[in-house]
From TrEMBL:
Keyword Transport on entry: yes
GO molecular function ontology, one term from the record: ATP hydrolysis activity
PROSITE patterns per the UniProt record, alphabetical: ABC_TRANSPORTER_1, ABC_TRANSPORTER_2
UniProt-listed PANTHER family: D,D-DIPEPTIDE TRANSPORT ATP-BINDING PROTEIN DDPF-RELATED, TRANSPORT ATP-BINDING PROTEIN
Pfam families: ABC_tran
Family that this chain belongs to: Belongs to the ABC transporter superfamily.
Alphabetized UniProt keyword annotations: ATP-binding, Nucleotide-binding, Transport
Residue ranges of domain ABC transporter in the record: 4-247
Biological-process GO terms, alphabetical: transmembrane transport
Lineage, highest ranks first: Bacteria, Bacillati, Actinomycetota, Actinomycetes, Micrococcales
Keyword Nucleotide-binding: yes
Biological source species: Plantibacter flavus
UniProt cross-references to InterPro entries, sorted A to Z: AAA+_ATPase, ABC_transp_ATP-bind, ABC_transporter-like_ATP-bd, ABC_transporter-like_CS, P-loop_NTPase
Name of the protein: Peptide/nickel transport system ATP-binding protein
Length: 262
């Protein structure tokens, strides 16, 4: 099986009487080079799925595979395979070390490739990545505070790309940003996905954004998938009552949105 595959993923937080099942038998396959949306109300388990895929939480049961290879185990092969999956978080303000020039943060990302980089190789790679996210490479020595929220999010994307991922998980990457710059970041992600043929798991509670970004979508409720399919089909004719409820609570679905403003 190729692509990113979750099977029966179950994640519990806490122990004993306080144990809580956040993800409960979650099944999903994201085909290579496609963009899959994961939607659902707050607390439905979306971020926990993302955290499990990059090893930030250990599943209680089930598995996650990339092109058939286990990425949750402790073996060095699993760790190596896991590095092919990179996560970009919601908040670009806390994601970057405020004392570290952005070029250095990006260079750190390239360590996940497992190769040793000479200083000059690293410098040119950082410049190339900054250009990819449309930031002037001459600003590699600036601190994060010199950049806007939207620019910082582009820098965190560059850092994730430095790891040469096959899969990029974008967890609410625009929800901490001003509406006026959200479109720029979304368009960048679309462009990168196509150019680099990335497999993208795009987590959002905004169905209009998912409609714009994703080929296919899964709807999560209480830790499991209640509906999945091509985005256009699921959003146009939801079969599940919960999906219909989610759609009804997003008035923005009815109007056309533009994404080209900065
Ligand atoms: N570190 C944690 N410890 C204990 N419980 C947690 C932890 N992280 C998440 N949870 C709980 O697990 C459940 C799923 O949370 P999760 O953040 O995965 O949902 P989500 O769908 O991403 O929500 P949101 O859209 O608000 O980010 C929630 O009930 C949450 O309170």
């Amino acid at each position: 099986m190729t692509g990113l595959e979750f099977s029966g993923l179950t994640v519990r937080y806490g122990h004993g009487a306080s144990a809580h099942t956040a993800v409960d038998g979650f099944d999903l396959t994201v085909r290579p080079g496609t963009s899959h949306g994961l939607v659902g109300e707050s607390g439905s388990g979306k971020s926990t799925v993302a955290a499990a895929a990059v090893g930030l939480v250990i599943p209680s049961a089930g598995g996650i595979r990339l092109n058939g290879a286990d990425i949750v185990g402790r073996s060095s092969a699993a760790r190596r395979a896991r590095r092919r999956v990179q996560l970009v978080f919601q908040d670009p303000y806390s994601a970057l070390d405020p004392r570290m020039p952005i070029g250095l943060s990006i260079a750190e990302g390239s360590r996940a490739t497992g190769r040793s980089w000479s200083r000059s190789e690293q410098r040119s790679r950082v410049g190339e990545l900054l250009e990819r996210v449309h930031i002037d490479p001459d600003r590699a020595n600036d601190l994060p505070s010199a950049f806007s929220g939207g620019q910082r999010q582009r820098i965190t994307i560059a850092r994730a790309l430095a790891a040469e991922p096959e899969v990029l998980i974008a967890d609410e990457i625009t929800s901490a940003l001003d509406v006026s710059v959200q479109g720029v970041v979304l368009n960048l992600l679309r462009e990168l996905q196509r150019e680099l043929e990335l497999t993208v798991l795009f987590i959002s509670h905004n169905l209009a954004v998912v409609n714009y970004m994703c080929d296919t979508v899964s709807v999560m409720q209480a830790g499991r998938v209640v509906e999945a399919g091509p985005t256009a089909t699921v959003l146009a004719a939801p079969e599940d009552a919960y999906t219909r409820e989610l759609l009804a609570s997003v008035p923005v679905m009815g109007r056309r949105m533009t994404w080209d403003e900065e």
